[in-house]
Specification:
The chain has 170 residues and is an alpha+beta fold. The chain has five helices and ten strands. The protein has one domain: Pnp Oxidase, Chain A (Roll). Strands 1, 2, 3, 4, 5, 6, 9 and 10 form an eight-stranded antiparallel sheet that branches. A hairpin with a 2-residue loop joins strand 2 and strand 3. The radius of gyration is 15 Å and the shape is globular. 32% of the residues are buried.
Length: 170
């Protein structure tokens, strides 16, 4: 990818809890012909079954969910604080109803593998899905979480994805 340098996942700098929870990121799935993206702030990174992984959840009601279900790969894109408004747009509007990438002022680009990300991203992870499972009310040990986050029963699907490649802006 032009203007990016590939690094090992173990070289990712900064506080990942802050990056995910406070700065947010975009989950993008699909290819040049059709893709969608959404803002996320729930997830984590670590090691699972000996592989570097990203873990995140998508509600089935989100348009990006359809793309994540159809495609074996996706990207996670992180941005500087300058793009907070763009991430707010991508998190509050549906790609079913508008061209939110255009409204957000982002420039879609393709990775060598054909996955979509954005020229403005400071960090991009290209991932392959390894495991996915629907969250279920009965499995929550902390029942207050259900009351706070899932009152309407719109439970997320949890994904564990192998981090295949990582790029940082050069």
């Amino acid at each position: 990818m032009e203007n990016y340098k590939e690094i090992d996942a173990k070289e990712i700098g900064g506080n990942l809890i802050k990056k995910i929870g406070d700065e947010w990121f975009l989950i993008t799935s699909g290819d040049k012909s059709k893709f969608n993206t959404m803002t996320a702030s729930w997830g984590g990174m670590g090691v699972f079954c000996g592989k570097n992984v990203a873990i995140f959840a998508i509600r089935p009601s989100r348009y990006t969910f359809e793309f994540a279900e159809k495609n074996p790969t996706l990207t996670l894109s992180f941005f500087s604080e300058d793009y907070r408004k763009a991430l707010q747009i991508c998190g509050s509007k549906s790609g079913r109803d508008c061209d939110k990438v255009k409204e957000a002022g982002l420039t879609a680009i393709s990775t060598e593998a054909g996955n979509m990300t954005f020229k403005e991203a400071s960090l991009v992870m290209e991932c392959t899905k390894m495991y996915a499972q629907n969250l279920e009310e009965a499995c929550f040990l902390d029942k207050e979480m259900v009351e706070k986050w899932f009152k309407n029963g719109d439970y997320h699907k949890l994904y564990i994805c192998q981090i295949d490649k990582v790029w940082v802006r050069a």
